[in-house]
């Protein structure tokens, strides 16, 4: 799966006959063989791996460190370490990744964005009490790209 000695143990499983509605938050390793209709989010600051098997489908946002896709993801993907797209893997959504390994036959319908660890993301927010749309009320908040 990965050429590194990263933790590749599977701690949790969504079985092939399971259909989960709602967000799934995990630590360690998660393998999805069924369907998840919701976001799949790894806990921050932990080494983790998400495996989406060939018969699996996720409809929602995916955020994790390491990701192996053999099935289908419909939604944006944020992968802070290694993203591996297997021959039957399909992602329909924008993909943010650090390292990408894409096998022949895999497809991405969306924008691919390479991000280095520690690259900042910029978000705009309105301070409480200020009027939306007032240029003086807009504050810029900086978040690290590798924080999930």
UniProtKB/TrEMBL annotation:
Q: Where is this region: Disordered?
A: 124-148
Q: Where is the composition biased (Polar residues)?
A: 137-148
Where are the bilayer-spanning segments? none
Give the superkingdom in one word: Bacteria
Pfam families the record matches: Bactofilin (PF04519)
InterPro entries in alphabetical order? BacA/B
| Signal peptide coordinates | none
Give the family from UniProt.
Belongs to the bactofilin family.
What is the protein name for this chain? Polymer-forming cytoskeletal protein
Q: Which organism is it from?
A: Zemynaea arenosa
